[in-house]
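To: structure desk
From: M.T.
Subject: fold request, one chain
Message: Could you run this one when you get a chance? Sequence is below, nothing fancy, just the single chain.
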Amino acid sequence: MERIQEKHYKIANGEVQLAVSEAGQGQTLLFFNGGGATQVSWKRIIRELSGQYRIVTFDFRSHGKTTRSPDVSFESFLGDAEVIMDKVAGPRPLVIGWSLGADLAVWYAARHPGRVAGLFLIDGAVPVNLVIDPEDTRRRLNTPAVKFGPLLLYLVGMGYRLTPDEYATLTIELNRRREQLLSAYEQLDCPVELVLATKSAGEKGERAERNNALWRSGGEQLGRLYPEFSLQWLDGSHQLPFKEPVSLACSLDTFVQHIQAGSSIPTGDERPSPTDLALETPQKDGK
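Reply: Done. Structure tokens follow.
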């Protein structure tokens, strides 16, 4: 996607000031970040997009350039999303969500029929609870890396201001909400594409092996229950926006094209590769 001038501003959700960035014209693509991530997460994907879009990114509460809030419940994050949808998104945006952001996108669309043109979900919103022992989760997240890591991340625009206990509470709540996700999927009235990682929980240890198997099973369950959804697996970790930006951008461009054309979303071998899409897309001068 061509470099275009960005606008940066704040939108209020009560006492929280949400940091927003937008650029371009055309179909609105609205990006919902994952927990512990910021707008910076999307830069590589956005750079690889070939279509003409209005791009909107923002930081949830206690993340990035948005102000901190003592309320970091799932519903409070959903409230941030609703404010952005009401005040920034415009009519029928296509929502792209990663991790926590994917779950928020599904719950938002379920509560607001007709409001969203489509959902492009990256390694999230799978109906499976991966937290078996909440107290163990709290112990594992109460480490110096979790305490001080966000301070270092601020140097590259990726900082967040959740304490280890707040991060653990959000993680536990998110996973509990995933036990009810199928009820949200039942209410959707828009096209959906899911791109899931085969090694979402990592590659080492029994916990990773178990969680990856549960993740796979949950994703395949969605595919069986909703054959109209497009579901693809990428061989990689949870960090897909950083590791697979070209593949994700290609899939997203194709997803938008099919929605705009009113045609079905391709699955499996029907989906073009990044090379195919590049051959079909006229090259801009100087590219």
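Reply (cont.): The domain at 7-267 is CATH 3.40.50.1820 (Rossmann fold). Let me know if you need anything else for the meeting.
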